[in-house]
Amino acid sequence: MEKSAKAFAPQSFLNRELSWLEFNQRVLDEALNAGNPLLERVKFFAIVSSNLDEFFEVRVAGVKQQMESDYATRGNDGRTPEEVLRAIRARTRVMVADHGRCWREKLVPALATVGINLWEFANLPPTDQAWAADYFIKQVEPVLTPLGLDPAHPFPQLLNKTLNLIVQLEVRKGKTREQRLAVVQVPRVLPRLVRLPRTDARQDYILLSRLIGHHLASIFSGNKILGYWQFRVTRNSELYIDEEDAANLLKAVEQELHKRRRGDAVRLEVEQSCPAEMATFLLENLHLTEDDLFRIDGLLNPTQVMMLCDDNHLPELRDPPFLPPRAAAVPPGTDLFAVIRQRDVLLHHPYQSFDTVVEFLQQAARDPQVLAIKQTLYRTGGDPRIVGALMEAVNNGKQVAAVVELKARFDEANNIQWARQLEEAGVHVVYGLVGFKIHCKLTMVVRHDEDGIRRYLHLSSGNYNASTSKFYTDVGLLTSRPAFGEDVSNVFNLLTGVCQFPGTRKLLVAPFQLHARLLELVEREQQNAERGLPARIILKMNSLVDRESIEALYRASGAGVRIELIVRGICCLRPGVPGLSENIRVVSIVDRYLEHSRIYYFENACQPEVFVGSADWMPRNFFSRVEVVFPIEDGNLRDRIIHEVLGLSLQDNVKARQLQPDGSYLLLQPGPKETPVRSQTEFMTLALRDAPKTGHARSLKTSLTRLKLRPKPVGTASTTST
Q1: H helix or E strand, kind and range, residue 526
Q2: 431 has a pLDDT exceeding 70
Q3: What does the DSSP 8-state code read for residue 11?
Q4: Which of 157, 165, 355, 400 has the fewest Cβ atoms within 10 angstroms?
Q5: Torsion of CA 336, 340, 343, 349, to 10 degrees
Q6: Element (H or E) spanning 722, and its range?
Q7: What is the mean pLDDT of residues 644-660?
Q8: Which of the following is catalytic: 214, 348, 439, 458?
Q9: What DSSP state is assigned to residue 55?
Q10: DSSP string, 237-296
Q11: Backbone dihedral angles phi then psi of residue 172, each to the nearest 5 degrees
Q12: What end-to-end distance do the CA atoms of the chain give, in Å?
């Protein structure tokens, strides 16, 4: 494949880390949006904090390691690691301040108007103070372990993301008094919000940390409490495993998980009132600098407020309930194998029920004609139905193999648990290829049909996780196409056996040929545009980082290819720049569900091709993971993806934000004569319209606020919904 010799300057690229921070800002914007139901805003508020935690645990920790390395280089945008870290800190401080104001000035007053209050202990009525004191004595104090700090008691190794109190004491020593320090960890095993007893509808809480702080005198008896301040440490949580030297990957991951909880500190958060000398003491003991300190005017651990959502069931405070119907092609009681033999089935989650995928596994486990089941497991979510179906299949005499990815970030412990249970049940459990994370989403069922052996497949952009399937948007395909089956067999042989990659006829597989093939498809659109043929590219993904891919899109834009990108998170491409990317538009949708599906559309001179799969356009996905991308060959299903999934996403003018050349995002709004289009609401409407006509589906239609559908064609094929 010939490439243009044109070099792209560093200013052609947006910084990856800063782009991610802009994504988190879009999440914060949803918490600030008074048009969202109150408890949904609280959820977004908590997610912002959780996202920032992971960002510091992994990305900031990585930047710091680059600074310490002898091989630090400039990024695509020309910044050094030091420059990146300075920019991260500056942007994060603004976000943290906005986050705190969101809580203090927006959410707390709004919660109070509906009878939900967080109290300071001193402001409680005497009866509540008495109840809280009794609760502390009986439920909290026995769990606490105060840690004195002196030459005999060095500064403790505090666990990652734990909430702690640094306590200043005045200690009597004979006739003299001296000041001492101690640390009290707020127990993770207890609810962080303590709900006060009420006989009416009010919901009043106190923070567990404040309850402990008020009763410190009973913990440090005989001493005077001069003050206490909350603080929180974030540590490096990346796994570092040399798989070549790890004789047992399962044990190696378990050992590394223990190290993660006490990795190097990367951030210190203290409450706003913490004295400077106390913050300095903490920084010195954590081996951090003043630049790593973040003062929080609000909640130090905002994820704790998710309890407010769990305790509350008022419908007016939440999004309208939506129970996903089944896909029309697979009504209840369907023999899935009979349906899949006849035609491909497309599933769009969470708008269509994930139960179909679970039933596919359960039917396979119980069907006497099924000989074998093979599946990749990246994030199972602990659903006993999925893992249970594999165990049941073994009990029924079938060959069952599971490729479990132990290094699925922050799900490692969960995957280790399920891997052990599967092994004990007799499932052949393997951990994939040395040096590569197994990220593809594949299930293959081998069945002895009347006309011979046939492979039934489920291919997807999302995980086999029934919990996340309720709020992640993903696309799955059920198919028995022989060429697809041969390709999937080759992938599983690669993952479970000892063989070279034999190549594929239909699937695109990383790290082998996915990157090169996608670049070829982009260049084909460029060449079509240069010849005056119809040329268009639509890509939907979580992240766009890979430099070669971005440069290919720039070249295609320069040739006149119309390019539309739906990128939820990181986007390092700079759109709308004259002479560089004036034909490229980028939007990000942040709404009720997490946009997770990866879909690639290429116009191909009026013969459109659509691919779906597990890979974002990032170097790690192309070169460090096993990813599978599959074509949609059924014309009706291809049309559905083009006109519904992609078309409605591009029409969104309610929850979509458009990336500007400077890296900021602008919330789109319908014009005076335009119809508001909220794509996720439209998808719910379409799913209900096309659902099997059951009483369940009909009752759901009455609970959904529906917008008038007027989809605009985005491809060349006719509009068909199946």
Answers
A1: helix 514-530
A2: yes
A3: G
A4: 157
A5: 70
A6: none
A7: 97
A8: 439
A9: I
A10: ------TTT-S-HHHHHHHHHHHHTT--EEEEEEETT--HHHHHHHHHHHT--GGGEEEE
A11: -85, 130
A12: 37
Query: Which of 22-36, 370-384, 573-587, 638-652 has the weakest average pLDDT?
Result: 370-384
Q: Are 136 and 212 in contact (CB under 8 A)?
A: yes
| Mean pLDDT to the nearest integer, 84-88 | 97
In eight-state DSSP terms, residue 304 is: G
Q: How big, in percent rounded to 5, are the helix, strand and coil portions of the chain?
A: 40, 20, 40
Residue 659: φ, ψ to 5°: -70, 130
Q: How far apart are CA 160 and CA 268, in angstroms?
A: 11
The proportion of the chain whose per-residue pLDDT surpasses 90, expressed as a percent, equals 73
- Enumerate residues 6+ apart whose C-beta is below 8 A from 153: 147
Range with the poorest average pLDDT among 174-178, 287-291, 447-451 = 174-178
Q: Transcribe 537-560 into DSSP letters.
A: EEEEES-B--HHHHHHHHHHHHTT
- 524 vs 378: CA distance, rounded Å: 33
Predicted TM-score (pTM) of this structure = 0.90
Confirm if 658 and 681 have CB atoms less than 8 A apart.
no
Domain annotation for the chain: domains and CATH numbers: 10-317 (3.30.1840.10), 336-504 (3.30.870.10), 509-701 (3.30.870.10)
Of residues 578 and 251, more confidence is placed in: 578
* pLDDT score recorded for residue 411: 52
Q: In sequence order, what are the residues at sequence separation of 6 or more whose Cβ sits closer than 8 angstroms to the Cβ of residue 139?
A: 190
- Among 158, 312, 135, residue whose Cα is nearest residue 230: 158
* C-alpha–C-alpha distance, residues 691 and 697, integer Å: 7
Give the H/E segment covering residue 586: strand 584-589
* Three-class HEC string of 367-406: CCCEEEEEEEECCCCCCHHHHHHHHHHHHCCCEEEEEECC
Question: For residues 361 and 443, is the Cβ–Cβ distance under 8 A?
Answer: yes
Q: Which two tokens stand for residue 451?
A: 């006309």
Could you tell me the CA-to-CA distances from 489 to 458, 508, 613 in Å, in that order?
A: 13, 14, 17
Please tell me which residue, 496 or 98, carries the higher pLDDT value.
Answer: 98
Neighbours of 272 (CB within 10 A): 11
Residue 196 has pLDDT above 60, yes or no: yes
The whole-angstrom separation of Cα 553 and Cα 583 is 10
Q: Could you identify the residue written with the tokens 């008094």?
A: 177
Q: Is-catalytic flag, 313?
A: no
**Cα angle vertex 652, ends 576, 689, to 5°?**
150
By residue count, the chain amounts to 722
List Cβ<8 Å contacts ≥24 apart for 22-26: 22/663, 22/664, 22/665, 23/568, 23/569, 23/570, 23/588, 23/590, 24/48, 24/51, 24/52, 24/55, 24/95, 25/95, 25/665, 26/588, 26/590, 26/657, 26/665
Nearest to 358 by CA among 461, 429, 423, 443: 443
Average pLDDT over residues 377-401: 86
Quote the tokens at residue 135. 């609760």
Collapsed DSSP state (helix, strand, coil) of residue 577: coil
Q: Is the pLDDT of residue 416 over 90?
A: no
Residue with tokens 């040739």: 559
